[in-house]
Request: fold
Amino acid sequence: LAEAQLLHRRAAERSDFETFAAPPHLSIVPIRHVPEGVDDLDAHNQALADAIQADGRVYLASALIEEKVWLRPCFVNYRTTDDDVLALLDVASELGERIAKERR
Reply:
């Protein structure tokens, strides 16, 4: 739960991510990458989820919540560290910016 709350807090602090609702009470933390200039955020976040899975540095799935595509990290491994959590945001931002740039 501490990792989920850390991810939610750090994602909320960044301008390139959006968080879903209040801080999490479970290990699932829906977030969306919202780079400037991207009109179809659902297609962007689905492409990003696919790219993250193909990249292999971190893993998450996508989820459809209230008709929007969200990235859906879920912390279940007791060996997950704060650095792992923050790496997820860095990887998602890096790959997301690359995808956004290719689509512009």
Q: What stands out?
A: The first helix runs from residue 2 to 13. The two ends are 37 Å apart (CA to CA).
